[in-house]
Design a protein that fits this description.
By secondary structure, this protein is of the alpha+beta class. The protein has a three-stranded mixed sheet with strand order 1-2-3. α1 packs across α2.
Length: 78
């Protein structure tokens, strides 16, 4: 069953409370999303570690309920 965009956003915000999150349904099928996540938690971290933090916030749903997520992460601009 596809995962709603608002559920993805909720999980990311729970895991990264300060995050600014933008979710886009890429195919209109509820299975292929893009997410842009900006959080101070990413400051100084390599991109791979930033993505790991987002995947951890999704609580194991990647590859199951959530089929595909094109992820862009960044720390806020100072």
């Amino acid at each position: 069953m596809p995962m709603p965009a608002d559920e993805i956003e909720r999980l990311i915000r729970e895991g990264l409370p300060d995050a600014q999150v933008e979710i886009t349904d890429l195919a209109g099928d509820g299975d292929h999303y893009a997410a842009r996540v900006v959080s101070a938690a990413f400051k100084g971290l390599p991109r791979v570690r930033q993505h790991q933090l987002v995947y951890a916030a999704l609580q194991g749903r990647m590859g199951g309920e959530l089929h595909a997520l094109a992820l862009t992460t960044a720390a806020p601009q100072e």
